[in-house]
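Worked example 2:
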Amino acid sequence: MNYTNKRNFPQYVVEWLEKDDYDYDENTLSATTLMQPPRSYALKKQNWDKVEIDIEDLIASRYGTAIHDSVEKVHLTGCKQEERLKQAVKNKIITGKYDILRQIDERRHELIDVKSTSVWTYIYGSKTEEYVKQLSIYRWLAIQNKYDVSLKAKVWMIFTDWSAAKAKSDPNYPQTRIVIKPIDLWGDEITLKYIGKRMDLLANAANLDQAEMPKCTDEELWASEETWAIMKDGGKRAIKVHKTEEKALEQMKELTPAYHIDHRKGKVVRCKYCVARKFCTQYTDLIAEGRSEDHDKI
């Protein structure tokens, strides 16, 4: 993988952003890698020498790194921190580094994951399922490494875009910049089945030509729901937005011919974070369909 510097940042900024302490190993799959869409994983693997990422796109991740580093330096009471765990599965090593493993009694521990994230991630719960998958893998790894870990975990959410004014005016808005979110994790059997399934999906996709690869699903693409909007001819705003075409057609029966239905396909978000999009025909199709407003900056 190669880095670009399209904004012409000075060298000292480039050195900061390019810094990567992760030890990459061909025979290792991390928890976050297991959760990747198979198509994204395969295209990145097949085109690794040609993949480019602009250092500007690394700035957001450095916020998260800085927060993790500041937590790690504190040496929290009764906690183990930032330990990388490993376990062999099939022909690979599964690995994951938990943020905090807090002792809750003489023998049991609970996982706490630190996330720097948007307020809207919390409000809409858009990444809760990802948190469950990631921390369930961490828990399984901890169990294999002789820890006794609870099925109850916590996500320590630190908001990057929190507003005190919105907190005062909206009781549903997070009332503090930090929220501790409880989550329930999977048991060992379910987690191991998930790990095995993901390993097979990634391995199979990596051996396929792109035309044969599975396409990323709407869920994997973080796509919004498609809708059917009732529009007045010449108007700019919908008078009603429906989640199904049937509901929109029902309303149209009550309206004059001066109205029409505007089918709005769900917009995708994840592509702009995928370093393999330059090589992806699905990404090109999504732009042509009007489902992605992202322009390829690679």
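Residues 47 and 276 are 8 Å apart (CA to CA). The longest helix spans residues 188-206.
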